[in-house]
Amino acid sequence: MKKKFRNFIALALAVVLALPMWGANVFATENGLTESPHRLFVDGREVSTAATLGGGVGRKAPFNVDGTTYLAARAMSIAFGKNVQWEPNTSTLYFGQVPEASNLVAVTTSAGTTTMHLDQIAQLAMTDFTAQNRTVAESYRGVTFAALFAAMDIDVSNATSFMFVAADSFVNYASAEDVLNPENGWLALYQDGVRLNSRTRLVLPADGESGRWVRDVMEIIVVTEDNPAPWFREINIIAEGVAVNAVDAEGNPALPFMLNGKIYMPLRAVANALDMPVGWNGDIGAIFVGDVPQTLEVYGEGQLYVVAAGERFVVTMADILEIGLVETYAMIRGERRDYTGVPIASVIEFLGLDVSGVTAQIVYATRDGHGTASTPQETFDPTNGFIAIAESGVPFGHWEQGGRGPFMLVFAQDIFAQRFMRYLTEITIEGAVLAQEHDGNVLTITVGGQNFHANIAVFEGLNPRAVEAHGATFTAIPALSLIEHFGINPATLGNGAIVAPGGPEDRFFTNEELMTEGFVYIAFDQVERSTPFVVVYPGQPNGRRLWGLDQIVFEVVEAAPSFTIRIGGQSYSVTTDLINELGVVPFVARDTNFTGLPVATLISHFDIDVSNVIEGTAFAADGFNRQFTPEEMMDATNFFIAIEQDGQTIIQSGENSYFNTVFVADSGNGRFIRLLDRLELNSTVAAEVGTTIEGLGAYEFAITHGGQSFIVTMEQLVAMGTVDFVANTMREPIRDRNFTGVPLRVVFENLGIDMTGAGNLLITATDGFQTSFTSANALSIGYIVIGENGAPLGMGERGPYGPFFAVLNGMANNNWARTLQSIAIN
Predict the structure, then answer these.
(1) For 453, phi and psi rounded to 5 degrees?
(2) What are phi and psi of 513, to 5 degrees?
(3) Whether pTM exceeds 0.70
């Protein structure tokens, strides 16, 4: 909470309580607490503002304070479907997972908090009385507040008012005159002769015809003229057992507060603690928590144009939603960005276009005049080229309303992950034709329900050759060439079923045959037949072939789940079969039953020398990571790879990994990491000397630390000792790249730089691009790369990326900087 707001609340809440309700509302509104009458969506479901969010200035909306949205705790409980409970002794609000309610009533004064058990209160002198609950007269038995405070030896002679806080966080307040009047203020324990299930009630029967009351009183706060501070409290929040870091979007404190009968909590901070993203769409005045509803109203109107096949197609936002939104992410300027949108390939299919003959680059334009281009392979890869309409669940909004959309171009698999375009308005595809114009001269490859179309132009561009088969000569290409042309990983394919109109239905070739060089060819010159395509097998005298081919349908084989262990350039693959073979054991972590294998068993199985390991890092498929010590790794009672949880196989749909890593003996009842992708073990010695690279040239970069500046030349860097290692720069499909470089840890040691207590490292490239490494990551998995595949870094497909390339090995595309210029250690 910014200082001005903190000071305001301390003053405002002391004054507000002396005002009637309408006065409190006016006072709050005039001093910075403004109504935030926005719509609220939680996991795609709109929550009624009027019915649920009550308790704001106008009792119909949350508060907005310095740009931070606050929502009443009870309203948030209903919106999120979570329990809520107040615990007065520690000023903690539990959200979701709540402890058993205490049987104590707490009274808080400037001197501290005093408690009394309900059973003790029940032994005090009790009084029978009648109070109005709206229009119904109810019979109670209880103790007057005057008697309660006397029994607890609490001096309330200077009290001006009291605040009553219920277990569900509801807050009410009353003047000292009302509360201390023995004919008016009671704490009720019985109703109609029966002990109240909801513990206690504050009852003020003389407060008009409809008595004021509060169920389940947990705390009574005493306010005096000299001590207004109890009205503003630094309230702790525990959401599902995790302490909430109460900060706003900029990291400034955003502390909860009490006002108008409610405890208000910062919406974003609580949602973040529950792993629920928060978004905002100013066009419709809506706050989104969790999943965003996929409706036109949410994303807004919009259209873009696709110029292809001699036409200019209009694609509207409604079309995009009809196609079906998917989630993806890309690394933009060194940071992960999560997007919602559709693959360009899906738009092409929606428009009925055949792009199999497209060889020219696809051109993109934006409303502000910018443009870029991409290859057909990049564009039509359904895991790469995307039309995005939202980031982190937040719609971009239309440019006319100050948004950066409604459409954005994103390449999720870009090696350097830098290409994106806001305000996308037009896509031009030369060489595309309408699907109905195929005229039988297109071969369809179907993989997992997705179609890839190859016309004659595609075949002619794949180095066709004359093939002798079945006593004839054909113009053909290897079947594998066609598969790879479309970016399909052949290792994921099973049998290929060959389909021809009116032909046999049982013709197929196996994956082994597909992968065997020179075994399966597809000819495309039989123009006198219904289609020009025929599958031929050179050297197979059995006449195995099929004329008039128009489709090949491949089975998709699920790859066996696996992860890798890496150390010093060596990789070891671990599959579920291996884990089961080595002998799984049951164990318990976080009160959950798992089945798995100690990591120490895997280390022993592969005979990995870990005597020089100083640290390890477990990486998830999404880039999340946790570090561990060698001692933790080799403790067979502590560090496990889990493959079952509560008797069920651990499977994460749509992800690359099936594994959890679990640290069961860690304080806090266990660390864990889902979607395990690899374990990186970092050693004090390199496993092998790096490849000798010729022609590196005379280059240098700078390192600054503690007021000192170091110039590192290429010659110096090589003399420090290079190592070969593998790092991947793409996430799906994984693209391993073979680098030669020097660990950053070795560079710092050679320069005499003490990294004890160091903060983040600011990495700057020659083009001004900047990213940061944490010191822990830099020391454990950071490298300065000088070569790839045995050659110096030079001109890549998208420009130079040398002579130095800073990278975190294992971060799965998260952090890197090509054309390194300097490293500043904070």
Answers:
(1) -110, 130
(2) -65, -40
(3) no
